[in-house]
Amino acid sequence: MSEQRASIPSERRIQRIQLEPYDDVVSIKDRLQFVKTNRILLVLPTRGNILQRKLDLVLIQREAARRGLRLALVTTDPTVAEHAQELNISAFYTVEQARTSRWNRPRNKVFVDRADRPTQMDPFEFEELQRRATRLKQPPSRMRWTVNRLTSGLIFGVAVIAFLFLIFALIPSASVTITPATDQINVSIPMFADPTVDRPLPEILTVPAENRRLIQDATVEITTTGRRNAENSLAEGVVTFTNNTGLATLIPAGTTIQTDTSPAIQFETVNDVALAARQGATADVSIRALENSSGVQGNVGSDAITVVTGSLAESVSVTNFNPTYGGGVTETAFATQADQDRLLNLVRQQLIQNARDFLLLSLDEGSSYLVNDSLKIVEERTLIYSSEVNEPADNISLTMQGVVEVTVIDLSAARIVADVVIKKDYIPDGRVPVEGTISYRRGEVLEFMSDGRIAFQMRVEGESIVDIDTQSVKDLIAGLSARDAQAEIEENYLLDPRHPPQIDTFPGFFNRIPLFTARISVEISPP
Hints:
Elements: H1 2-7, E1 14-18, H2 25-32, E2 39-43, H3 54-66, E3 70-74, H4 78-86, E4 90-92, H5 95-100, H6 123-133, H7 142-170, E5 173-178, E6 182-194, E7 206-223, E8 226-233, E9 236-243, E10 249-251, E11 256-259, E12 266-269, E13 273-275, E14 282-289, E15 305-308, E16 316-319, E17 328-334, H8 337-362, E18 368-370, E19 376-385, E20 395-410, H9 411-426, E21 431-433, E22 439-448, E23 454-466, H10 470-477, H11 482-492, E24 502-506, E25 520-524
Parallel strand pairs: 1-2, 2-3, 3-4, 5-25, 6-7
Antiparallel strand pairs: 5-24, 6-23, 7-20, 8-17, 9-14, 9-16, 10-13, 11-12, 11-15, 12-14, 18-20, 19-20, 21-23, 22-23
């Protein structure tokens, strides 16, 4: 290889310099001083904008000429290639092309050496330059004068025509209003809420969900349903005591008397009474039944009370000339097992309702969906009944503390998935949703999956319109009459038949669409 390289003449050897985007004229000229061959190939980077000024190439060409180097470029930049061609510098697209193609010879005089410039020290050359610079021109001939006049007239006519064309093109303007055809969107999109994902997945119609737990308390009170009879009133009446001795006798309140039946119905005197000191003396006193003889059993007939108990049994005798009265039976309420079971169901429902109310206050209804059917009690920590079974009570209450679990669906993610699905599957090509008309709302829960997912629906309603590119409309109608422009628009675009295209031109008498699309304004009107 070295022998082959040595066989190449020195004037045919090429030294390549790879330039970087940050190189400039100064750095390139510095690198030229280290060139060892007669040919130098500058390889410009594909990115960057170095050497795009023609002056830069002139300076580098001068430096190369000063050092006796033949200069060529490898570049894909058309600006650099054009400047190189003007300076007779070879410009190639690839290094291989530079190695196999012929190089242009550099110009003999890219610059004038200071020694060659005319000075006052060289009077002959200086006077010759002065004479050439101040030489008077010969007057033109008549034919030349005529040609010049015709040329001037032609140029003036072209200028006038160009001016009139500019007025015709720039002053007129047109305003076009188009109402595209609309289509209704009303679909239900099935989705899955999955607690195991953390971002919306439109490709599998899945959105994130969250299983939340919270501790709640609830207290419910109901009326007991157990009923049984209970004697709750004491019979009353009046008895007559008779003195069996000739001595005065005091019968104190609370003296017990009773019937001679078995079992005996017992009564007691309500207040004190005194019998006169003669045999056969009588006195009346009020009585009432004792607790052990309460209820209807205390209602006895006439002459039923005949027995005096205690120390006065031999001294006095007793009887009731009228029946006793007022003894009765009442119905007593008590708690049953059925009451406790019903109360437990009610307090569970209340616990879930309390949890629902709390979550609805704390959640943003627009971004979160509380799945009501997912509410459940996962732990019952405390149950306190106010009455036990069979215990007398008109009412019974239960206080419970429990842990409630619920699933909350991320509606923001559901809207993202619905938007992707709508645009992909439900809006035809060439149509776009009408901004501000699309609404998303949650539908019904379809199914609770065994793997913990919840199938539900998202309802999407709104409108879509034909997507019309305003620039394409401008290109289509530029230069046409207003009538032709309207016909072209109606033929090429699907429009609302109730609202034909509206075209306004300025000036009003012009009645034509300008040639320049910049003078045309196209407005897409909402339906």
